[in-house]
Amino acid sequence: MGFEFKKMESTENKNQKDFNLDADIEKIKCLIIGSGPAGYTAAIYASRANLSPVIYQGLEPGGQLTTTTEVDNFPGYPEGVTGPVMMEDLKAQAERFGADSRWGIVSSVDLSKRPFKVVVDSKKQIEAESIIISTGATAKYLGLDSEEKYKGAGVSACATCDGFFYKGKNVAVVGGGDTAAEEATYLAGLCKQVYLIIRKNYMRASKAMVERVEKTENITVLYEHTTKEITGSNVVEGATLDYKGEEVKIEIDGFFVAIGHTPQSGLFKEWINIDNEGYIQTISGTSKTNIEGVFAAGDVIDKDYKQAITAAGSGCKAAIDTEKFLAEQK
Predict the structure, then answer these.
(1) What is the pTM (predicted TM-score) of this model?
(2) Residue 254 and residue 197: Cα distance in Å, rounded?
(3) pLDDT grade, residue 302 (50/70/90)?
């Protein structure tokens, strides 16, 4: 789930400058950076383990789910729930057990040794015995004004999350990689017609995924097409495409963007192992990073699933790993 950081200089001098030894320093046992299902679940488990967690929520408390309307696939909500309401529920549950949730943006960190040094909003200084990173990932969009207009009203970046709402309808998927191919074939099992919009004259997806798309009868691949505008009244009703200078219109009820995600990991790359796509790497089967006492959970480590329930599960793991780590330090 998403979280924004202020741009920082990637130097140790910057961190030393931000951390003023003359200022009041708050000491925290368990600091959670980022909210959303991973951060809030970590806060629930950490609170119940008596770790007195403090969670800084960032500019978008609740993460990407706060931009989602109906959520029907999270356990415990038989009638479904809106994304913002679910995030408020998770936050309230964490606070019930004593979690301290705060507004604020982490502006710099120093993970060179424990206690870890953290600066919030370029002024508040913290020393943390342990840190859980749950800063999420932000879906990439095309940047169209009409795309922004219909977010939550027909525009989505997650077929698994929202595909059910378009059962028996016509939809479009934008993208030419494996993710787009997977989204298109998933939607083809639910929808009447799926248009796969690809700006190049070929798919970047693996051979196996290309063959799967080509064998799916209700997927129409539109090569060398780009999206000019998404149209409709209050919800998506169509899209205007460009094909070599010619305007093409399609009638659709849903528009799915599958051109990738940007993990919000830049603040930590000086210390934490990060792969070439920006995802934080954890020790297999755990939430542990290469820095003892620093753990990671949610979409910032997950390039495959990106579901609220998997993020929540990894938040649980991170809190349990943190509790065990702190117990060993005693």
Answers:
(1) 0.78
(2) 13
(3) very high
Catalytic residue, from 18, 30, 110, 161: name it. 161
Q: Is 161 a catalytic residue?
A: yes
By C-alpha distance, which of 286, 111, 320 is closest to 328? 320
Query: What integer pLDDT is reported at residue 18 of this predicted model?
Result: 63
Q: What is the pLDDT of residues 257-298, one digit of tens each?
A: 999 889 999 999 999 999 999 999 999 999 999 999 999 999
User: 30 an active-site residue?
Assistant: no
Residue 221 has a CB neighbour count (10 Å cut-off) of 19
| pLDDT tens, residue by residue, 185-236 | 999 999 999 999 999 999 998 899 999 999 999 999 999 999 999 999 999 9
Which of 18, 30, 110, 162 is catalytic? The answer is 162
Concatenated DSSP letters of 5-68: ------SHHHHHHHS-TTS-EEEEEEEEE--HHHHHHHHHHHHHTT---EEE--SSTTGGGGG-
Mean pLDDT of the region 130-135: 97
Pick the closest to residue 102 from 26, 24, 203, 187 (CA basis).
26
197/185 Cα distance (integer angstroms): 13
What domains, with CATH codes, occur in the chain?
12-138+261-329 (3.50.50.60), 141-257 (3.50.50.60)
65-113 residue pLDDT tens: 666 667 888 899 999 888 889 999 999 999 999 999 999 999 999 999 9
Tokens of 93: 């549950």
Cα gap 230→145, rounded to integer Å: 9
Integer Cα distance of 330 and 326 in angstroms:
7
- In the set 89, 100, 158, 242, the catalytic residue is 158
112, amino acid identity: S
Q: What's the rounded Cα separation, in Å, for the pair 5 and 320?
A: 26
